[in-house]
Amino acid sequence: xxxxxxxxxxxxxxxxxxxxxEEVRFEVSLAWIHxxxxxxxxxRQNQRSIIVTLKPGNRVEESILNTVDGNASRALNFSRxxxxxxxxxxxxKSAWKVVNANTLARVQDRKTYSWVIWLRTDGQKRCTVTxxxxxxxxxxxxxxxxxxxxxxxxxxxPTDIFTxxxxxxx
Length: 170
Fold this sequence. Notes:
single chain, 1 helix
């Protein structure tokens, strides 16, 4: 079966028909803790909400709301889009990659590690999401960037607190 929107019909949750002109959305919620070890020892809770929209022509859009320690004044809200498998974004480049018929991976390459968000669907109306932090070969610590402080920080492997996913089918 050939389809125009995405090479993976099951992932799109759609049948090959007039519905292919429609977008498919996933609402993803994530929360985790960075256990910072320098320059100051502290634990910081991060929350991120992402609306992932699969669009015609193998395009993907993500709208992100990121909050640190529940502080709305430090929330970061932005949208960006690109082609599936292509890197996009200015500061922190990421790419949504097709893994198989039921899985997308959002890969963000950082200085010493990669952060991967795995989005899986059952091909119907249910989805799950998990996160993974992978140190690059030869690296022994995670290094992040604190935009507000304009400085690097080091941390141990983050702890997942909460993940959820909801498929939104028009």
